[in-house]
Write a structure and sequence with these properties.
The chain has six helices and ten strands; from the N terminus they run H-E-H-E-E-E-E-E-E-E-H-H-H-H-E-E. The protein is α+β, with helices and mostly antiparallel strands. It has a four-stranded antiparallel sheet with strand order 1-6-7-5. A four-stranded antiparallel sheet has the order 2-3-4-8, covered by helices on one side. Strands 9-10 form a two-stranded antiparallel sheet. The structure holds zinc ion. Zinc ion (ZN) binds next to loops.
């Protein structure tokens, strides 16, 4: 599933092709995404110029006017790529290529989503849009501090992993990065949030920022593939220390990594290194 770093990578990957281009047409082959694509989307947005490519949480925002943006969410399996409009150079339209956003430079921003949990929405309300207004802080901004997370933890007795994955508090810390950050900070994912010291929360905040930045940097190296006709652009394998490795040896102490379920998400950790 695309998490924040993949979405950020997608943003950076499509930006050079989209910025300052106008939308000439939007072709919707399958409108039934998580929420239906507006029937008039092509009519409403054709002729508008993309003045900014931005990200809020896991939404990619193509800003068209001060109060008009196209909002793309990749859901569980969505991806964006750039293809040529000219028939000769254009790859065949695949079964899951649901939406094409045609641009004035002859490129097409193509949305592919096998599981159709993603969405393409018109946003006329800015940050007040229903899907954006409840989003918490961006983890890579200065606002996301140890003090902030510590304050949020005070009143919560749930496992710390659930707290950092709560998108109303902080966005984009998904299952993979939550586990990796907790391992880096030496904090058990099942530790009650309100029983963790400010010092340890501070280490966790630093770990979250570092893990996400590393993932974005790793994604940057795959940007050259963004116009590739074949693969999935913007996704990348990172060196993961605990995610998906329950039952294997801890990379630090060599003891067996435990695996538990927290809020129905499989979670691996080392009960020796993480307390
Ligand atoms: Zn260990």
């Amino acid at each position: 599933m695309p998490e924040l770093p993949e979405v950020e990578t997608s943003c950076r990957g499509i930006e050079p092709y989209c910025l300052n281009q106008s939308i000439t047409k939007i072709i919707v082959r399958q409108a039934k995404l998580r929420w239906p694509v507006d029937k008039d989307i092509s009519l409403q947005l054709s002729g508008k110029v993309i003045s900014l490519v931005n990200r809020r949480g896991k939404y990619i925002l193509l800003q068209l006017e001060p109060s008009l943006a196209l909002m793309i969410h990749l859901g569980m399996s969505g991806s964006l790529r750039i293809v040529e409009k000219s028939r000769r150079a254009s790859p065949e339209i695949g079964k899951h290529d649901h939406v094409d956003i045609e641009l004035s430079n002859g490129k097409i921003l193509r949305y592919n989503d096998p599981r159709r949990f993603g969405s393409i929405l018109i946003n006329r309300e800015g940050e007040q849009h229903l899907r954006l207004k409840e989003l918490g802080l961006e983890p890579l901004t200065e606002d996301f501090t140890a003090d902030y997370l510590y304050r949020q933890c005070r009143s919560r007795s749930s496992p710390i992993k659930s707290v950092i994955m709560n998108s109303q508090l902080v966005v984009g810390v998904g299952n993979i990065y939550a586990q990796e950050a907790l391992f880096m900070a030496g904090i058990s994912p099942i530790r009650q949030a309100n029983k963790i010291s400010l010092k340890r929360i501070s280490a966790l905040v630093a770990a979250i920022k570092l893990i996400l930045q590393q993932a974005i940097a790793a994604g940057g190296s795959s940007l050259k593939d963004f116009t590739a006709a074949d693969g999935k652009p913007g996704y990348f394998q990172q060196t993961l220390k605990v995610y998906g490795r329950g039952g294997e040896a801890c990379p630090v102490c060599d003891r067996t990594l435990k695996q538990v379920s927290i809020a129905q998400r499989t979670t691996a950790y080392c009960s020796h290194c993480q307390t």
